[in-house]
Amino acid sequence: MLLIREVLARQMSLLKITILAGLIVGLQTARALQFDDQSPYFSFVWGDGGLPANIYSVAGDQISPDGQTVTMSGNCGPIDGADFQQGFVLDWGGNLEGTIGPGEQFVADLNFSVQATGGTLAWNFLAEIAGEGMIDTSMTPIALNGQVNGAQFEFETPSYAQPYWNGFGGYLQVDWAGYSPTDTLSINVSSIEITSVPEPDSLYLTIVPLLLVLIYRVRGVCRSRG
Predict the structure, then answer these.
(1) Which stretch of 93-97, 124-128, 161-165, 193-197 has the lowest confidence by average pLDDT?
(2) Among 131, 113, 129, which Cα is nearest to 174's?
(3) For the CA atoms of 95, 97, 98, 101, what is the dihedral angle to 10 degrees?
(4) Do the beta carbons of residue 102 and residue 201 sit within 8 Å?
(5) From the centroid of its chain, how far is CA 163?
(6) CA-CA distance, 180 to 182, in Å (whole number)?
């Protein structure tokens, strides 16, 4: 009878571990913000000017299966100096699904290259939520045939973010100066990957210690029976 009770107690502990582990996974999934389509496109005038029909451009995005990462890519050019306008960007905008509050964490990873026949180039990266800036890097010079690989940035929603905020957007800007009308500029964006980093909530932080205690107890029972 004693052995049966020990077996049942061990099975109940294992069941509790399974349930708590499932809750942890479920809480993390529910807590994470999820991207929808960000519809990236190349444009002048910081997203408001479009591009002349004679300039080639293509852009798109992919959403990870869990919705927590969006990856944007595209190509544009060559753009003649005679056609170039200021505020040249790969622009994007869409929504985030989930409850959004202050301090929501994001990580961005940038990989792109530029090619120009003259002048000088610089770039910057901006991300915003509900029209409020989260990160706006300073202009960084880049060579006429330059690459940016693995540039990473961490940023978060502002302290006054509200739960109903869900508009997400941003751009990668390339500034071109000192060029002639016959110079050309092209850009290849291999990837702009933005990930929403899930933050554990109070229930999650409570369950994890309980799970560790149960695991410790089950291991103790197994050792005593061994």
Answers:
(1) 161-165
(2) 113
(3) -10
(4) no
(5) 19
(6) 5
pLDDT of 24 reads 46
Q: Which of 71, 41, 43 minimizes the C-alpha distance to 59?
A: 41
Residue in the structure block whose two tokens are 């205690």: 213
Architecture category of domain 33-202 in CATH = Sandwich (2.60)
What predicted TM-score, i.e. pTM, was given to this entire model?
Answer: 0.77
Tens-digit pLDDT profile for residues 166-207: 899 999 999 999 999 999 999 999 999 999 987 655 444 444
Nearest to 184 by CA among 103, 96, 104, 82: 82
Q: What is the mean pLDDT of residues 47-57?
A: 94
Q: Give me the pLDDT at residue 103, please.
A: 87
Map out the domains of the chain as residue ranges. 33-202
C-beta neighbour count of 118 within 10 angstroms: 14
Q: Which residues 6+ apart lie within 8 Å of 217 measured at CB?
A: 13
Q: Which residue, among 177, 161, 152, 205, has the nearest Cα to 81 in the 3D structure? A: 177
For residue 178, which amino acid is it?
A: G
Q: Is 202 helix (H, G, I), strand (E, B) or coil?
A: helix
Is residue 124 pLDDT above 90, yes or no? yes
DSSP state of 46: G
Token pair in block for residue 148: 């940016």
> DSSP string of 61-129?
EEE-TTSSEEEEEEEEEEEETTT--SS-EEEEEEEEES---TT-EEEEEEEEEEEESSSEEEEEEEEEE
Please give the single-letter amino acid code of residue 210. L
Which of 116, 87, 113 lies closest to 185 in space, CA to CA? 116
